[in-house]
């Protein structure tokens, strides 16, 4: 299984030591909070921000607060680790442990279905509770991996 994503920026210099983590930063925008519903919507947005950054190992998220005309009014910094605490203090719209447990169970289930090489597709139709897993190609990787990456991963 391959997980890939884009990251917006680096907070500081690239570390001198190869094994030291890079201080990646994710940049996001969100409307200013004017009403209780805005706060709930922001909590839900934070889930998406957190999942992306958590899975990719991005330690910091910077959120630009904008008005209805799109003008930047404020900048807020969050560490990825602190984000799950925000819903606990607010409307409690999501729980990080529940999300991680669901992902673990889903991936465990998926590993029982995806049991051979090839290209697989996962789909869920809108308003359906059913998830389909389909094999679309017997071999290959869906042309998303460069030959150099495949060769690098094949080396022992």
Question: Any chance you could write out the topology, listing elements then pairs?
Answer:
Layout: E1 9-10, E2 24-31, H1 36-56, E3 60-66, E4 72-79, H2 85-89, H3 96-113, E5 119-124, E6 131-137, H4 147-154
Parallel strand pairs: 2-3
Antiparallel strand pairs: 1-2, 3-4, 5-6
Structure description:
It is built from four helices and six strands; from the N terminus they run E-E-H-E-E-H-H-E-E-H. The chain has 156 residues and is α+β, with helices and mostly antiparallel strands. It folds into two domains: 9-113, no CATH class; 117-156, no CATH class. Strands 1-2-3-4 form a four-stranded mixed sheet, covered by helices on one side. Strand 5 and strand 6 form a beta hairpin. The longest helix has 21 residues, at 36-56. The radius of gyration is 19 Å and the shape is globular. The mean pLDDT is 92.
Total domains, how many? 2
Mean pLDDT level = 92
Structural class: alpha+beta
The ordered string of helix (H) and strand (E) elements is EEHEEHHEEH
Q: End-to-end span in angstroms?
A: 18 Å
